[in-house]
Amino acid sequence: MSKQTNKSIAERAIKAHYSYKQTQSEDTAREYRRHIRRFHKYLNENTDVTLWDCHSGHAEDYYQWMFDDEYAPSSIRVAHAALGDFYKQIDKFAGRRGFPEVSVEQDPTEYATPERINGMHTESKKDAEGGDKPLTKEEVRKLVDNVPAPTTRNELIVRLLYQTGMRRSELVRVKLDKIDRDSREITVYGKKTDESRKVWYQASLDTLLNLWINGDRKAKLTADESPYLFCTSRSERMDEQVVTDVVTTAAENAGIQETIYQNRQGQNINRIGAHTLRKTFGVHFINDGGDISFLMDILGHKNIETTKENYLKYSTKDLENSVRRHGPSL
């Protein structure tokens, strides 16, 4: 089976499964489709197997990849449930209800489990007291002032994360042709949501962005061929871990890094990482009077409850007083 044929059959199966799940829950159908597509993409990019001949080892490697990429344990469990349901329905409806006639060698979720991944049962930063606490404006300034070399690139990384609320996975995938420097608008592809959205940065970033694009970036060996904002001398796109390393090193240099807890491997889990700047953007946005429904769209959340749960608890904005002041009284 050619790669293109396999892709076509896979999309047909995913579409049929989505239609089936829609009859039960639209939200679940969308969530499961996103996870199945991400697994399909993972197999294409990291293995030589397909959805039809992968096995439990591939599934567990995928769960480990999600965990290493900072997906929450709850998201990994949903991915496991989504894939399990996908293979269950293929076995049940193969050749019917829009499902292709395919033969699956083994349901890869049958013997795979996310719970075997080291760290799935450790305390998360979100659960640890103060673990996902945002930075103060003064702490952000200290981060910017203490980035490691190369300083132009790394300062741009920190300030872009803070000004836009992008995830690190989104930042490294920003393409030059998706940056409108006149309107200071960036079209972002969300690897986590498999959708695109727009974010904006402030005029204070113009000089630094121009210095990188028109200067330092051009010195990279891959610059002419790479479509990405952050290319390196060895690859067309920066690795996500580099973003984390830049932020954590800047925090250590600034003397503001904190250890939240130790995982099962005895590794220190730091309070300040790349995601901390996303959290900080959101809380500062709300505290400055930003609308939480707008924040949901900017951050690429699917559900406003996610935004409320993660960003209101650290907000100093008095919601009750805001309602009493601005709410209708008739």
Automatic annotation (TrEMBL):
Keywords linked to the UniProt accession: DNA integration, DNA recombination, DNA-binding
Composition bias type Basic and acidic residues, residue spans: 122-136
Biological process, per Gene Ontology: DNA integration; DNA recombination
CDD domains: DNA_BRE_C
Domain Core-binding (CB): from-to ranges: 8-91
Every Tyr recombinase domain range: 130-324
Database matches in SUPFAM superfamilies: DNA breaking-rejoining enzymes
Any GO MF annotation of the entry: DNA binding
Region Disordered: start-end pairs: 104-136
PANTHER family to which the protein is assigned, alphabetical: INTEGRASE_RECOMBINASE PROTEIN MJ0367-RELATED, PHAGE INTEGRASE-RELATED
The name this protein goes by in its record: Tyrosine-type recombinase/integrase
Naturally occurring in which organism (per UniProt): Haloarchaeobius amylolyticus
Organism classification: Archaea, Methanobacteriati, Methanobacteriota, Stenosarchaea group, Halobacteria
